[in-house]
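Notebook, bench 3.
Goal today: get a predicted structure for Exodeoxyribonuclease III from Mucilaginibacter pallidiroseus so we can plan the truncation constructs. The sequence was checked against the plasmid map this morning, with no discrepancies at the termini. Length recorded as 257 residues. Pasting the sequence as submitted so the record is complete.
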Amino acid sequence: MKIATYNVNGVNGRLPVLLRWLAETTPDIVCLQELKAPQEKFPEQAIIDAGYNAIWHGQKSWNGVAILARNKKITELDRILPGDDEDLQSRMIAAEIDGITVVCLYLPNGNPAPGPKFDYKLSWFKRFNKYAAKLLASGKPVVLAGDYNVIPTELDVYRPERWVDDALFRPETRVAFEELVSQGWTDALRKLYPGQTIYTFWDYFRNAYSRDAGLRIDHFLLSPALDARLVAAGVNREVRGWEKTSDHGPVWIEISE
């Protein structure tokens, strides 16, 4: 089974890219972030025509997450991260598919830091870590996939000295990510490629993609039950080079049935 995560950076504006990628790679389950579309503007029919069922949590102009499944039933579990009734941002959706709990997340960027946006990032992270701990305690197969807006280590960024004050790389952010992983989750790409430079995001500016000046901020964290089934992982880097594409590349894992 192939599971993928992709920050599309606007699901309607990038729809031709998304549909081409789905057709060429045929993932079984897909987590999408940054839909940038209200609930009623999600391109459901185009997704259905591509062979996928879908659930989504939209938001006008910003954020938004979705889970797609090819020829599989999707049972929605959650679409709001517990812990703050006043938080209306569409940043998480969770479902059960083929016995696997799939959590799609789009963690706050947090810039400029320090400041209110960074405070929100850390508070969201704290709430998410509590949510993740409960899922892990269930003992079920769980995958936490999405755009974490976290650069975990210096290996995960081109020229790390330029990012020391950025919310994605600040010590507080990295500690929160380490606390999450240390619950017992496996970073899928790092398990299979522990010392390799791997990026999932390349800025639109300064020819970042052609220079391979990227970041690894899109992650798969696996519960022990799924970690034991992990057989492959990678990044569809070439998609970042397509016309009118997202600044992220799709990331994928394969697990045994």
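Residues 143 and 222 are 5 Å apart (CA to CA). The mean pLDDT is 98.
Flagging this for group meeting.
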